[in-house]
């Protein structure tokens, strides 16, 4: 089977066990081109394992991870299809940035001009002939990105690319990834911090303890945000809401309710049920809160 | 569309670009010439003083011309140890410096193993050539050129030396790919080549002198990898020196019993190398890079 050139990544029923640890179980999602897909989850939720399985570096215990319809190892010219920035990816400390890129470029099938191009693109031209052993974390991330870009791939996979980047670096990276996706290519970028990805993410895959807890547009996640209510009789309000089909209600401390519904509906229901409202706040649009809730962190 | 252009089955053979990539990696760090320095120093000193060999056959004054090929063979045997260390270092450096993910991503595991082996074999051949050139110069100066050994014999010894060093480089790459831990693999290699294999040979040969063990067991000593390389190297010089007693000279030099002919020993080393590569291929293919 040949790669289909779609720029699509498809993970199906992926599971990976390291000894007694089940890093990923039954994970399925699809990454489409033309969008930035955020791959979110707390540390240790299986993001890195999943990305490495997609890239053929980790053998799945069961399930499949396909790039353009084929396993990564079956891509005839992988460097032209996928560029990857991985965590804990190194450069020989004695090798200069340029030599490192030339060596990788030779395997990808690109020459010195492309090496100079990507060095300029990530802003490392001035440091090109210094040994990478003296690079800062941020410079190493830029070099890793330059390496990923060598083959002008259709798909970019980045594992926590913001680590070690200064705020300007992160802003630059966001712009870069946004432009990349708008050009119709695929970006899959992982982070344990939603704020880091911020507004550039078009789609989300949220991971918790090795399983997918949400996938879809960011709007869908915002839509599930809650209305917080302080009222005279929480139990009665909850019953009244349930009668109207609103069942996602959390009872918080001090009689507060968190309700997954529109504020107008909650207010009307409270009035009809004769429950006095002392406070009503909308939490709509707070992705961070939803992320924390989905992944079991305290909101 | 050629077979390698299509997807479906992972490629096995490295592309020319991948070979170039591995060559660039070797040339852009200093381990290859750092290991070439002791190779050069040993080549000079062994051949100037005639090495162990000159002392061992000190009685055969008439055969002085035969000492140069023999001391050259001995220094090539030493060079092969450094060739193997170099192979281990280039393979394990990828894991030590965490560059292996990037390497596998663009190259594929089996093609990378083969490309590394090819480049390391080239480096091993360079070590052998370096040994040959410096050894010949030092030998002609130090041992005296009263009776020059035949060019044919010298060329044959150098050619076998190139093969032995290249094979040991590949064995080093295979070992490094299998073990991954740099310090562990280098120490393991040296302990085996310098100590363990000698002990093994001793044990294998121990029972034969008083007839307690069959000769076949003792002959196994010739089929251990380091011994096989030595036999291949010493076979021709020993024949030059000792004529029909050549094989017994090889026995005492390589510490083996009933050695096969030189070409047979080279074949034995080749089989060991192929087996090592196959093991490294299987282990490397299954390893999770986390």
From TrEMBL, chain A:
Keyword Metal-binding: no
SUPFAM superfamilies: P-loop containing nucleoside triphosphate hydrolases
Alphabetical list of PANTHER family matching this protein: ABC TRANSPORTER, ATP-BINDING PROTEIN (PTHR43335)
Protein name, UniProt field: ABC transporter ATP-binding protein
ABC transporter domain location: 9-234
Keywords: ATP-binding, Nucleotide-binding, Transport
Family statement: Belongs to the ABC transporter superfamily.
Alphabetized Gene3D superfamilies for the sequence: P-loop containing nucleotide triphosphate hydrolases
Molecular function GO labels: ATP binding
InterPro entries, per database record: AAA+_ATPase (IPR003593), ABC_transporter-like_ATP-bd (IPR003439), P-loop_NTPase (IPR027417)
UniProtKB/TrEMBL annotation, chain B:
Lineage top rank: taxon: Bacteria
Transmembrane portions of the chain: 32-60, 72-93, 113-141, 153-177, 183-204, 263-284
Entry keywords, A to Z: Membrane, Transmembrane, Transmembrane helix
Stretches assigned to coiled coil: none
Keyword Membrane: yes
Protein name: ABC-type transport system involved in multi-copper enzyme maturation permease subunit
Organism from which the protein derives: Pseudonocardia xishanensis
Lineage of the species this protein comes from: Bacteria, Bacillati, Actinomycetota, Actinomycetes, Pseudonocardiales
């Amino acid at each position: 089977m040949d790669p289909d050139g779609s720029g699509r990544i498809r993970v199906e029923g992926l599971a990976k066990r390291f000894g007694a640890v089940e890093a990923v179980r039954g994970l399925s999602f699809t990454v489409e081109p033309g969008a930035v897909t955020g791959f979110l989850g707390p540390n240790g939720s299986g993001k890195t394992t999943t990305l490495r399985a997609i890239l053929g570096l980790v053998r799945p215990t069961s399930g499949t991870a396909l790039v353009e319809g084929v396993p990564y190892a079956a891509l005839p010219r992988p460097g032209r299809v996928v560029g990857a920035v991985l965590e804990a990816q190194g450069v020989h400390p004695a090798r200069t940035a340029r030599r490192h890129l030339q060596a990788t470029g030779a395997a990808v099938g690109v020459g010195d001009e492309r090496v100079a191009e990507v060095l300029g693109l990530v802003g490392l031209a001035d440091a090109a002939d210094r040994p990478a052993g003296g690079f800062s974390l941020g410079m190493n991330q830029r070099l890793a990105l330059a390496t990923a870009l060598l083959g002008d791939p259709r798909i970019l996979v980045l594992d926590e690319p913001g680590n070690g980047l200064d705020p300007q670096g992160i802003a630059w990276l966001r712009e870069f990834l946004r432009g990349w996706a708008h050009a119709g290519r695929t970006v899959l970028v992982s982070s344990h911090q939603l704020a880091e990805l911020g507004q550039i993410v078009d789609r989300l895959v949220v991971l918790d303890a090795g399983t997918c807890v949400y996938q879809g547009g960011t709007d869908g996640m915002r839509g599930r945000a809650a209305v917080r209510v302080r009222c005279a009789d929480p139990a009665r309000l909850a019953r009244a809401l349930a009668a109207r089909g609103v069942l996602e209600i959390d009872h918080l401390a001090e009689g507060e309710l968190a309700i997954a519904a529109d504020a107008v509906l909650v207010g009307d229901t409270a009035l009809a049920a004769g429950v006095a409202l002392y406070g009503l706040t909308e939490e709509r649009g707070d992705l961070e809160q939803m992320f924390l809730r989905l992944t079991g962190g305290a909101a | 569309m050629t077979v390698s252009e299509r997807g479906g089955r992972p490629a096995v053979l490295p592309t020319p670009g991948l070979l170039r990539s591995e060559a660039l990696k070797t040339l852009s760090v200093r381990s290859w010439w750092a290991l070439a320095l002791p190779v050069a120093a040993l080549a000079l000193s062994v051949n100037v003083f005639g090495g162990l060999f000159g002392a061992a056959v000190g009685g055969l004054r008439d055969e002085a011309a035969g000492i140069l090929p023999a001391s050259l063979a001995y220094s090539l045997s030493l060079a092969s140890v450094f060739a193997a260390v170099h192979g281990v270092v280039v393979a394990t450096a990828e894991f030590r410096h965490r560059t292996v993910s990037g390497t596998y991503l663009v190259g594929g595991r089996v093609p990378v193993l083969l490309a590394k082996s090819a480049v390391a074999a080239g480096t091993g051949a360079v070590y052998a050539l370096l040994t040959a050139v410096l050894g010949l110069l030092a030998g002609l100066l130090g041992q005296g050129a009263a009776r020059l050994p035949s060019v044919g014999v010298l060329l044959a010894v150098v050619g076998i030396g190139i093969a032995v060093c290249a094979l040991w480089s590949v064995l080093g790459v295979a070992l490094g790919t299998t073990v991954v831990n740099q310090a562990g693999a280098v120490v393991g290699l040296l302990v085996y080549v310098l100590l363990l294999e000698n002990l093994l040979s001793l044990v294998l040969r121990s029972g034969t002198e008083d007839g307690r063990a069959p000769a076949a067991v003792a002959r196994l000593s010739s089929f251990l990898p380091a011994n096989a390389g030595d036999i291949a190297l010493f076979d021709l010089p020993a024949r030059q020196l000792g004529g029909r007693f050549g094989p017994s000279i090889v026995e005492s030099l390589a510490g083996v019993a009933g050695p096969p002919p030189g070409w047979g020993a080279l074949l034995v080393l080749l089989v060991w190398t192929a087996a090592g590569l196959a093991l490294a291929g299987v282990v490397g293919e299954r390893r999770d890079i986390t």
